Amino acid sequence: MAEFTMDLNDEQKEVRDWLHGFAADVIRPAAAEWDEREETPWPVIQEAAKVGIYSLDFYAQQYFDPTGLGIPMAMEELFWGDAGIALSIVGTGLAAVGVLANGTEEQIGTWIPQMYGDAGDVKVAAFCSSEPDAGSDVASMRTRAVYDEAKDEWVINGTKTWATNGGIANVHVVVAVVDPELGSKGHASFIIPPGTEGLSQGQKFKKHGIRASHTAEVILDNVRVPGSCLLGGKEKLDERLARAREKARQGGERVKNAAMATFEASRPAVGAMAVGTARAAYEVALDYAKTREQFGRPIIDNQGVAFQLADMRTSIDAARLLVWRASWMAVNGKPFTAAEGSMSKLFASETAKKVTAQAIQILGGNGYTREYPVERMHRDAAIYTIFEGTSEIQRLVIARTLSGTPIR
Ligand SMILES: Cc1cc2nc3c(=O)[nH]c(=O)nc-3n(C[C@H](O)[C@H](O)[C@H](O)COP(=O)(O)OP(=O)(O)OC[C@H]3O[C@@H](n4cnc5c(N)ncnc54)[C@H](O)[C@@H]3O)c2cc1C
């Protein structure tokens, strides 16, 4: 087990500086354009692929860093550059992690390369779980997967929504109900290979922020995939369902805890994205406050402004500490006895929303225009309190964990 440390080692510093350079030189200058266009920034993803930032290898290296700091450090730097573009770069990772976590070696080897493509022909992937009537309440999912034994095929029907890269992905990972009796324990994940008939893009959403990231509905109309597209395989699914039925009979407690541990481990990465956006807005506000003069002196000479900056920086550092602690705990198998992963996501995402609003205030009228980036950063920051579980759901998880009672 790696000791918890706040000091990045030389290798980590090198990676951080390299990512920062890419964020500053490639992502940041493209941010306003792709926000206005509201389109996937393919040329930027291609650049990221060329230098090795858009690849499974890169994320796997960061993920398996025993200090736990690889992923949060990478997310913070990329999202410091721009949240919409960074999500276009890391969004495929959501689907890839779905396959890594549940797939067989053969599935990992077959599908993950097709999710990323290569530098000459980049592809993206989508992870589709949310539905119009199943957002926070994942258990009410309706998309149904039925096994056609005669053909060894799964037939999938339903509508997914809010899917990052939905409809433009080369590979979609779709979560569907295989046993409605078991609630969220009766779900399974499926690969939908490129060009599969019956999968189509529904509405593409016009969003408040992260507009360079494509978000859309995905319609599944009698989609047929081979048995080999069930992640983990049929035998493992049957065993898991049998265990879930047995545990449901005994009260279901252990199954619930296993699912929760997975979320606790993934949420700090979203917290790190929020830290990146908050830090970016804070830096713009600090520079502006030092140079903007009113009443014959820089506005930072006023406590009213300087204290805001002090509070902003304090919250950002506190958020990073919570994120790094939870990431270290996840990699080192520490039990999340106080829902520390949810805590980090809750605090960092609320910090990003608040800090980016404070940055607009410090820039005054300029902050309210698209001439300066804090307006975009504030719009972007709102997403962190919504996806991967809203702030209310994080509070619910933390409160339930602390109290041991099923708070509603
Ligand atoms: C830009 C974007 C990208 C996304 N990307 C993906 C993706 O790639 N794949 C995917 O599967 N999903 C994705 N999502 C979906 C996202 O995870 C959901 O939007 C989120 O889980 C919330 O669900 P909902 O929107 O249905 O809100 P709802 O669940 O309807 O919640 C509405 C409000 O009610 C509150 N609320 C609900 N239940 C409770 C409760 N028990 N106690 C207190 N308050 C409650 C919520 O906190 C929220 O404030 C994305 C969403 C967005 C906006």
Note the topology.
Layout: H1 10-37, H2 42-51, H3 56-63, H4 70-81, H5 83-102, H6 105-116, E1 117-118, E2 121-122, E3 125-128, E4 144-148, E5 153-164, E6 171-177, E7 187-192, E8 199-204, E9 215-226, H7 234-250, H8 253-291, E10 293-294, E11 297-298, H9 303-331, H10 340-367, H11 374-381, H12 391-403
Parallel strand pairs: 3-6
Antiparallel strand pairs: 1-2, 4-5, 5-9, 6-7, 8-9, 10-11
Bound molecules: flavin-adenine dinucleotide (FAD).
Summarize the helix and strand pattern as letters. HHHHHHEEEEEEEEEHHEEHHHH
How many DSSP H or I helices? Answer: 12
Biggest beta-sheet profile: 4 strands, antiparallel
Gyration radius, to the nearest Å? 22 Å
- Order of adjacent strands in the largest pleated sheet: 4-5-9-8
Tell me the β content: 5-15%
The distinct ligands, each listed once, are: flavin-adenine dinucleotide
CA-CA gap between termini: 36 Å
Strand tally is 11
- What is the 3D shape? globular
Report helical residue fraction: 40-55%
Structural class: alpha+beta
What's the rounded overall pLDDT mean? 95
Q: Poorly predicted ranges (pLDDT <50, ≥5 residues)?
A: none
Organism: Streptomyces africanus
Cofactor: FAD
Protein name: Alkylation response protein AidB-like acyl-CoA dehydrogenase
InterPro entries: Acyl-CoA_DH_CS, Acyl-CoA_Oxase/DH_mid-dom, Acyl-CoA_Oxase/DH_mid-dom_sf, AcylCo_DH-like_C, AcylCo_DH/oxidase_C, AcylCoA_DH/ox_N, AcylCoA_DH/ox_N_sf, AcylCoA_DH/oxidase_NM_dom_sf
